[in-house]
Write a structure and sequence with these properties.
CATH class of the largest domain: Alpha Beta
Largest sheet: 7 strands, mixed
Strand order of the largest sheet: 8-9-10-1-11-19-12
Structural class: alpha+beta
Distance between the termini: 52 Å
Number of strands: 21
CATH architecture of the largest domain: Roll
CATH topology of the largest domain: Dipeptide-binding Protein, domain 3
Number of helices: 15
Radius of gyration: 27 Å
CATH superfamily of the largest domain: Dipeptide-binding Protein, Domain 3
């Protein structure tokens, strides 16, 4: 009995030992590549070069492929304590707030082995600022007005000397226009079709980010596919990205986007499902609806070189006829909030100055237009334009709503027109649309990045910082706010600015977006915060 037990034990040990030996000698299992398929109706406007790109989706791709000196901590309000280092480990600022020194991370390399250092930082900013493209971000965001010079102090230390004490400098450094470019890209980079030699890297100068661009396909200037693959040279690799490969599929309509998600072709749908579509997914156990605060705004613009929209009272009358609360409740089914200032609600120094006009205040509208001979027999004719290619959500429904609002005054007739996004921008630049709808996604999270919109030169409204008098006053107040040394001084300047903007009505704020995405239930890691940034590198499947 005892002998048989001993034999059994020996046999067991031999078998277990053999299994252990097999485990030690067998090759390790090949890890499975993690892949997420992401769908959108958005598109890259023209380029993903930080010196040129000035559109929402272009910036989203830049932030996936590149990196800046600092970044906003996900899930925060982007305040002064919500900034952390990225390519920079630390920074200091002098008492005048005009000298910023950054200490850089060591040991980082571009895709071809070139080292990242202070010279690369100086090169990137000088390249982008010197290009000063007519419609590029560095020109329109005033980099040259803010930054005086960039000085290399040591191999991994760089200094920014500023022209002015600029309150949101770190927020500016965190945005896509401040991302570092590869030293070999001396000229601006545009999309080129894939080739076996250049590959998609020939289309962009970005590097050092969580992903590399493995494929970018465009047909007739329209995006159809992008493939992002994890970058082992990223400063936070292998902690991030959390998913090896992101495949981006582009759709022409929200209907097609929603159908692809429902049909199992996508893991994520982001920008732009309609409010009704988003609502329908809330009751489906196979999907998760993610919602968060948004900093995007939409507004109505007047081309003030076209009569009678150069008349302030005409613009005031149009502002009074709109019912923002009803817009938010009906067209957007409560997924956006009415907006009464160009500075979003929930952001520092917001003042709802446009509340002075009320909601659908038709008596006021009639009084304003009566000054110019418009009445029920001789109505003001408005040619209202909207973009038709999915760049903004529910554009056609919005235009129809505004037409109904304005015509309910009894003294206005509205003709609706539409154009795809490239044509829309061309007509904006030509100044041919009398009244049109536009949107703004923040460059950096601060009122400074919103307060200039009524006199922004690239909107080409015939109303800017040099003409007329109201534009001059707005510009001066905006400068006071961005250069103020105290919170109290900033508040006073921004409150006065918003009041003047409501008086002049170069534009009419309409609504402030909330942020949402719909995913299959296995997707995690989504952060929707006030930056309105989509962070591919945080998303993963459980």
């Amino acid at each position: 009995m005892e002998r048989n037990q001993t034999i059994a034990i020996v046999v067991i040990l031999i078998v277990v030992g053999a299994a252990a030996a097999y485990i030690l000698l067998a090759p390790p299992p090949v890890p499975t590549e993690s892949v997420i398929i992401f769908g959108t109706t958005d598109t890259v406007e023209a380029s993903i070069d930080p010196a040129q790109s000035y559109d929402y989706f272009g910036w989203e791709i830049i932030t996936s492929l590149g990196a800046g000196l600092v970044e906003i901590i996900p899930g925060t309000s982007a305040g002064p304590d919500d900034i952390r280092g990225a390519l920079a480990e630390s920074w200091t600022v002098d008492e005048t707030k005009t000298q910023w020194d950054f200490v850089l991370r060591e040991g980082l390399e571009f895709y071809d082995g070139q080292p990242f250092n202070a010279t690369c930082v100086k090169w990137s900013f000088e390249r982008n600022i010197d290009m000063a493209l007519e419609d590029g971000p560095q020109l329109n965001m005033g980099y040259g007005d803010i930054i005086d010079e960039i000085v290399v102090l040591d191999t991994y230390e760089v200094r920014f000397n500023l022209h002015i004490a600029f309150a949101p400098f770190l927020q500016l450094m965190s945005c896509a226009a401040s991302y570092i470019v590869h030293p070999d890209f001396k000229d601006d980079a545009n999309y080129v079709a894939y080739s076996s030699t250049a590959g998609p890297r020939g289309s962009h100068p970005n590097d050092l980010g969580p992903y590399v661009l493995a494929n970018w396909t465009r047909v007739g200037g329209t995006d159809t596919l992008m493939r992002l693959e994890a970058n082992p040279n990223y400063w936070d690799y292998p902690n991030l990205p959390k998913t090896d490969t992101i495949i981006i599929q582009f759709y022409s309509t929200d209907t097609a986007l929603g159908a692809a998600l429902s049909g199992g072709d996508l893991d994520i749908a982001y920008r732009h499902l309609s409010p009704a579509q988003v609502d329908s997914f809330k009751d489906d156990a196979d999907f998760t609806v993610w919602e968060g605060v948004g900093a995007s705004i939409q507004y109505m613009l007047f081309q003030q070189t076209i009569y009678p929209f150069n008349e302030t009272r005409i613009r005031q009358g149009v502002a009074a006829a709109l019912n923002r609360s009803n817009l938010a409740a009906t067209v957007f089914e409560g997924t956006v909030d009415p907006l009464y200032s160009v500075v979003p609600a929930g952001m520092a120094y917001h003042k709802p100055s446009f509340e002075v006009y009320g909601e659908a205040n038709y008596t006021y509208t009639q009084d304003c237009l009566d000054d110019f001979g418009y009445d029920s027999e001789n109505k003001l004719v408005i040619d209202l334009w909207y973009e038709s290619s999915g760049h903004y959500p529910s554009s056609e429904e919005q235009a129809t709503f505004y037409k109904s609002n304005l015509e309910a005054s009894g003294v206005i007739t509205v003709n609706i027109h539409s154009a795809d996004w490239p044509t829309y921008r061309t007509q904006r630049n030509a100044g041919t649309m009398p009244v049109f709808i536009y949107g703004w996604y923040p460059d950096y999270i601060d009122p400074d990045n919103y307060g200039f919109l009524p006199f922004a030169s690239w909107l080409n409204l015939g109303y800017n910082e040099t003409y007329p008098a109201g534009g001059v006053q707005q510009y001066d107040l905006w400068v006071e706010g961005r250069s103020a040394q105290t919170d109290e001084a900033r508040e006073e300047a921004y409150f006065d600015l918003q009041d003047l903007q409501a008086e002049e009505v170069s534009l009419i704020p309409l609504w402030q977006g909330r942020n949402n995405a719909v995913t299959v239930t296995a997707v995690e890691g989504i952060v929707l915060d006030i930056t309105v940034n989509w962070r591919h590198w945080l998303v993963y499947m459980t």
